[in-house]
């Protein structure tokens, strides 16, 4: 067991393993001080550092070398040092820089949330709601691409892409051959496949889960429903290729889509295979575990009753009874 | 006239061949280094010389070399960065074309100092003739026993390879260069780890500019102390300056660092003044990515001292009134040049060359280019000027590699110093399409600073 190092983020001290990134240390603390991350994905090695939304200020390098770092650093790729002091939401400089990054990410984003399947679970949506400004200063035509189908189950809508490279890392690290990648450079760079090649792999569907925006969408779910009208339920099945632990998204009796189990940072617990994701969409295929807990901040939980009743209900027997009936009805599948 | 170190024999006919180069004292430093010096002694000598990186950042070379990790059982590499693509800089190309053996000699000595058994010269893809020249020179040197196995009987082996790049500006950034050298997409890596710890194929690597490596030759020949006598302050030695623009004698000049800018621009020994008897309006002192300065600020610092061609003097005044020596690509603009158009042109370059990996640079450079295009073609608004400053501020310092800074600085500095001209483009769009703003007050003597009583 190695010595833990002490790091202070926005005045809150936490002991973490050496080698932890600032972002992960902040996630251990949790709450408002966690920097947003659009490109970092803890389960994908080498990801991060690209979107620059997680910039933080290191006001004290370490106990040994207390000099502050000269520039803002990407918290997802900067390791903690013993005695490091980091400022995130307490630094106006960081807030300003983050606002700039959000504005810049949005100048070429179509903002077609009303017709986007990702709306409701889109990281860019959350990010711009929390850190962005209401209007744009960009007065030029936005970059657009044609929609293409990369593989029979996945559609790529490059116009929405923020080039986080997560899907590239997924293909590199989960599948045996990568058929897609970044073409072109600068603001003309795009995700695409080799000419005439389709993505055809048992784990290719995971690119949909890791995509922070609506650039990669599930063709079996496109335009079926808004995510906040569907009900997430944890389920598992015996699967020979993956662990088979998924979240089913119900609308009434019907399973609309299957995804990995996403945590509060939008990262899946386990990657799932394409059979689980696309082929098994009947309740009888699955062993139901119970409703999926979604953060109460998420729009997805807005129409659902939580397991734990509100405090006002707890004190009123009549309301508690009504709540129980309503909850049973809501969670009945 | 000062003694030249790098370009001493540049006018000897046939100096690009091994025999002529050898007759003129070439490869002396290899003999001296391999036979009489230890690798650490060479690194010490380079440290003593105070040589600073000639590629733009000006980081002390000896220091960089001493940072190189030396783990057991791992190869170490030296990579020469010949991916010279900065608009306004063409010194490395000149050096490689006319005196390629100087670079190879420097590579052998530097590789020996660092303990590299394999070294690479990464040349920009457009420089195909230079690649051929270097390859021939390497073959000649190998034939004479200066490369390959057991060089000069010292037991030191070195293989030197020339690697053509794909012609991307970003591959001049050291980690992007390493990615490209490995055969991957030329995206800069996220630092740390620095190349000195994990570079080419995760092995410790030093990346140096062509001129830096060439400068190792005179340092070993004459000794570091002798080299450090040239120059001024912490800017030691000589520097190649690529002078271009509206000058009487544009070209590559080797200067002692510390020559006054005025002398460099106007003396007959160097650029010989502004072409066609016009007046100087502005100067980009170190390649397109450094801040542009108006004529009065390039000749004199804000304290009314003469500005010198040195790392310190050119950056005197910080970003408010200074610039940088950068890679030594001096571009002079006469009174008939349009600063708005030039800024747009630079922004266009950075937009085109951004790798697209991190968002501020990918999206911001395109945005700046579009706004500048609008200003230059008479559709601009007053608010565009502040918008540009703000976008530049949001790119600067928030990117993975320095390309974001390099794109932001020319725009921010042009607006800082030439705001009148930008505003004139907005208020007189029709006139701006037909004629240039002219010299205006940009060459006026600087106002006296007010004395602050202590």
TrEMBL record, chain A:
One of its GO terms (molecular function) is metal ion binding. Residues 3-92 form the 2Fe-2S ferredoxin-type domain. Residues 93-132 form the 4Fe-4S His(Cys)3-ligated-type domain. The keyword Iron applies. GO terms for cellular component: membrane. InterPro entries: 2Fe-2S_ferredoxin-like_sf, 2Fe-2S_ferredoxin-type, NADH_UbQ_OxRdtase_ferredoxin, NADH_UbQ_OxRdtase_Gsu_4Fe4S-bd, Prok_molybdopt-oxidoreductase. Keywords: 2Fe-2S, 4Fe-4S, Iron, Iron-sulfur, Membrane, Metal-binding, NAD, Translocase. Its cofactor is [4Fe-4S] cluster; [2Fe-2S] cluster. Its main location: membrane. It comes from the Bacteria. It is found in: Membrane. Belongs to the complex I 75 kDa subunit family. This is NADH-quinone oxidoreductase subunit G. It comes from Daejeonella lutea.
TrEMBL record, chain B:
One of its GO terms (molecular function) is NADH dehydrogenase (ubiquinone) activity. It catalyses: a quinone + NADH + 5 H(+)(in) = a quinol + NAD(+) + 4 H(+)(out). Its cofactor is FMN; [4Fe-4S] cluster. Residues 340-385 form the NADH-ubiquinone oxidoreductase 51kDa subunit iron-sulphur binding domain. Pfam families: Complex1_51K, NADH_4Fe-4S. Keywords: 4Fe-4S, Flavoprotein, FMN, Iron, Iron-sulfur, Metal-binding, NAD, Quinone, Translocase. GO terms for biological process: cellular respiration. The keyword Metal-binding applies. Its EC number is 7.1.1.-. It is an enzyme of class 7 (translocase). NDH-1 shuttles electrons from NADH, via FMN and iron-sulfur (Fe-S) centers, to quinones in the respiratory chain. PANTHER family: NADH DEHYDROGENASE [UBIQUINONE] FLAVOPROTEIN 1, MITOCHONDRIAL, NADH-UBIQUINONE OXIDOREDUCTASE FLAVOPROTEIN 1 NDUFV1. Belongs to the complex I 51 kDa subunit family. This is NADH-quinone oxidoreductase subunit F. It comes from Daejeonella lutea.
